[in-house]
Amino acid sequence: MGVRMIKVNGVELCAEEFGDAGDPAILLIGGATAAMDWWDTALCARLAAGARRVIRYDARDTGAATASPPGRPAYSGDDLADDALGLLDALGVGAAHIVGMSAGGMLAQRIAVRHPDRVATLTLVDTTPDGPGPEPLPPPAQRLHTVFADPPAEPDWTDREAVIAYIVALHLPYSGPAGAGEARLREIAARVADRTRDLAASGNQFHAGEGVGVRDRLGTITAPTLVAHGTDDPMFPYAHGEALARAIPGAVLLPLDGVGHEAPPPSCWDVFVPALLRHTSGGWPMQADRLAHKALAAGDATGWFDTLYSAAAADEVAMPWDRAEPQPLLAEWARLRRPAGAGRTALVVGCGLGADAEFVAGLGYATTAFDISPTAVREAAGRHPGSAVRYVTADLLDPPASWLRAYDLVVEVHTVQALPEPPRRAAIINVGRLVAPGGTLLTVSYRDPDGTDDRPPPWPLTRAEVDAYATDGLTEVAVDALPARWRAEFARAP
User: What's this model's pTM, rounded to 2 decimal places?
Assistant: First the structure.
């Protein structure tokens, strides 16, 4: 989405966005004096690939943002927090997933306490409770004492190589054994040196007023909170992260092994990225809605299923349709009808994680179960090692010819309702075509008696759509209009 300068609270900030504007927004707030380059471009792109709108930006006196005279910042920490909100306003974002690192984490705490309506979730990285408090926390590690006592001398700000060396010398002592390392720090420092409007003013945030902390109000934070903390953080040792997790109701603590006081380096992305995507997903139904809308807009009615299952397999969202027991209406039907499965075949349509297929196989049927998502099929087979069920990947809109009129029992639970029209009608017809002579079709779906439901998927079926299964020689046996669902049984003559 590109880089642009944005006027906020009388100053210019530089922001860069990744991903689609319609996706949930993640706002990355950097540490003191940190230009947006410290949030790695590849990290931002990886988050955006998880269906997020990722925003990183240069705060005052960093990168391309407005710079105050060196040593004389005209703002406080509270102003920097207000700038973050002003940036969201300018970008048309109401509530964002706020991610703050170090001093940026303290700003994020202020935003969460003072403006809870603007915070969808909160993620605090390598930071500490904002403000003084009664709980003693460990001081910085010994290796930083030399840096504090004898910091690197300021360079000639017109000498690019000297500036890069200075930035590396400042940051290297904060890096952990799994951190960025000197070579990577040089890459980032070079980008910072080339982009910064006034390098001499880049340390101004250290001289700005702190503003009013909110440590005594952390218990009022209602946003779901993730605390990600480097286990080798020398500035705020790991106990600071533990203290934050205790202070904020329901907060989850994520250790970043071997990471120091630094924006998450590549070594921890396989842990940090899935955790952040899961934390900001809103759960699999919301993620499914987003993926479905994108797929449908692209003219692909079914591609989002595997994207969702793949994200779940990567632990980026809770596993969708995750249940160990058969759908209750299927189980009740079996108790009432007592079908004789021995020597007969069954096909489970859209099998997902396999609970219904395993139940049908337990009735004695030689059972095949299919899903359009290869990931779902792998997950189902992995959950049921040694199962008698044959799990396969297939497309209901183009089923194998050998399946037509081949199965004594066909079970379709909550699959057709996940499809729009088109191709819903074609899917309904294809389900019926799978039933063998003398066979039975059982379907379960959500009800939409008026045909007016315009929510995201699932799209409940109307009575007319349920009746449409009775095609290609199928006849209705029973249609149960239950409080929230249809359960319909059809049969084909021998």
Answer: 0.93
